[in-house]
């Protein structure tokens, strides 16, 4: 008689391959949200994600990662910025963790060190993934420019969230487009959710609500958005701006709100776990970034059926529905305010989730594709030699 199938034994004998993602930290930002969308949907009996990050502090997604079986390794480079020690720490890490045959990198910063150490350790698949189409200005931008040219040099595969991001980070090189996919049905518009969220936030049902979601960073240009709200408030009564997120620019933005007398107009909601619900309460989504690759929040807003206004610094590929409007930052505050005010016209929001899914931004299909890629590129744990050949 054949032995009964033992699922537990099968899983022990066929553990999932582990993919190592390298990035700054698992904070609630675009790249991290994209990775978590993928991680939640991928078949974790076959592919598990681990994370090598550069900040010691506990981060927004750490608990969820560990609940799903992921491991988080935290480097110490941010403590003293000793790059020699950083290279040594990486070398030790890769020598102690020979289970990884796929390294998926999401930051060009320091890539001249971490990508080199990964290659030296013999990791056969090393992915450089571009998530941005610009760096802005200033000393940090200069440093990032230096690393931009090193990023693809020791990679085996190049990925980009958009053509703009790929052409910027990997000029003249071939790369694979990986859409910033979302769990589309989660963002589908529901009238009852809209009503509930406004009630929870104490917002009038007839208020005109503008929203934006993202890190409070200079690149996001939220100071400009606050100035636009000053103009919009003169055009429409009962306007509200909901800013969802946090970051280094928060105190500056709060000062700006006070300076313009918009304390009753602008509300800071901080980091939220229920962003998908908050979109339902918006009448307009606005992202006036100085530069963007393909912002995940722009896809989410359109999936919720929300009229969406982007600066021309945002990749045109973000406009996947007729809800998207692109405006130049030098077009003036009045032009932005009037365009947003016109979004108040009644229309149906219910059908846009399917439009976004049909455009290829549903994470279910992407998760299957990425699982196949990772599995094809994986090798049995412990079989990769320092020279990168099978032992």
Question: Which short descriptors sum up this protein?
Answer:
disordered C terminus, 17 helices, Rossmann fold, 391 residues, alpha/beta, single chain, 7-stranded parallel sheet, globular
Please, could you describe this protein's structure?
The protein folds into 2 domains: 7-181 and 363-377, Rossmann fold (3-Layer(aba) Sandwich), CATH 3.40.50.2000; 184-356, Rossmann fold. Helix content is 41%, strand content 16%. It is built from 17 helices and 13 strands. The chain has helices at 7-13, 30-41, 62-67, 77-80, 83-96, 111-120, 139-150, 163-169, 184-187, 191-201, 222-235, 250-259, 275-281, 296-303, 333-341, 352-361, 363-377; strands at 17-22, 47-53, 72-74, 102-105, 125-130, 157-160, 176-177, 208-213, 239-244, 266-270, 284-287, 308-311, 324-327. The strands form 2 sheets. It has a 7-stranded parallel β-sheet with strand order 3-2-1-4-5-6-7. It has a 6-stranded parallel β-sheet with strand order 10-9-8-11-12-13, with helices on both faces. Helix 10 (191-201) packs across helix 13 (275-281). The longest helix is centred in the last third of the chain and has 15 residues, at 363-377. Mean pLDDT is 91; it is low at 381-391.
Question: Which helices and strands, and how do they pair?
Answer:
Blueprint: H1 7-13, E1 17-22, H2 30-41, E2 47-53, H3 62-67, E3 72-74, H4 77-80, H5 83-96, E4 102-105, H6 111-120, E5 125-130, H7 139-150, E6 157-160, H8 163-169, E7 176-177, H9 184-187, H10 191-201, E8 208-213, H11 222-235, E9 239-244, H12 250-259, E10 266-270, H13 275-281, E11 284-287, H14 296-303, E12 308-311, E13 324-327, H15 333-341, H16 352-361, H17 363-377
């Amino acid at each position: 008689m054949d032995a009964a199938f033992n699922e537990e034994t099968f899983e022990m004998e066929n553990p999932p391959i582990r993919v190592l993602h390298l990035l700054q930290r698992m904070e609630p930002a675009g790249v991290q949200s994209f990775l978590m969308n993928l991680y939640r949907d991928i078949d974790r009996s076959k592919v598990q994600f681990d994370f090598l990050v550069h900040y010691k502090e506990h981060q927004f997604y750490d608990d969820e990662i560990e609940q799903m079986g992921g491991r988080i390794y935290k480097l110490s480079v941010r403590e003293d910025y000793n790059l020699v020690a950083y290279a040594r720490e990486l070398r030790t890490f890769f020598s102690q963790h020979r289970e990884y045959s796929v390294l998926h990198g999401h930051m060009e910063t320091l890539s001249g060190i971490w990508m080199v150490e990964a290659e030296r350790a013999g990791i056969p698949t090393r992915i450089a993934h571009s998530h941005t189409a610009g760096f802005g200005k200033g000393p940090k931008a200069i440093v990032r420019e230096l690393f931009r040219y090193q990023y693809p040099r020791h990679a085996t595969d190049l990925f980009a969230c958009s053509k703009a991001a790929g052409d910027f980070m990997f000029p003249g090189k071939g790369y694979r487009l990986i859409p910033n996919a979302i769990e589309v049905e989660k963002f589908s518009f529901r009238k009852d959710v809209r009503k509930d969220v406004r009630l929870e936030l104490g917002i009038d049902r007839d208020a005109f609500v503008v929203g934006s979601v993202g890190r409070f960073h200079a690149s996001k240009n939220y100071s400009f958005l606050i100035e636009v709200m000053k103009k919009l408030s003169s055009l429409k009564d009962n306007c509200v701006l909901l800013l969802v997120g946090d970051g280094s620019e928060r105190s500056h933005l709060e000062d700006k709100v006070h300076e313009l007398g918009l304390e009753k107009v602008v509300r800071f909601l901080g980091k939220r776990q229920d962003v998908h619900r908050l979109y339902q309460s918006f009448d307009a989504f606005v992202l006036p970034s100085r530069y963007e690759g393909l912002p995940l929040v722009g896809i989410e807003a359109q999936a919720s059926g929300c009229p969406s206004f982007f600066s021309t610094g945002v990749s045109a590929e973000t406009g996947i529905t007729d809800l998207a409007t692109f405006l130049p930052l030098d077009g003036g505050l009045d032009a932005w305010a009037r365009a947003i005010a016109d979004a108040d016209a009644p229309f149906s929001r219910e059908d846009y989730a399917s439009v976004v899914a049909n455009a290829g931004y549903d994470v279910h299909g992407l998760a299957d594709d990425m699982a196949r890629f990772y599995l094809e590129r994986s090798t049995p744990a412990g079989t990769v030699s320092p020279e990168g050949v099978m032992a």
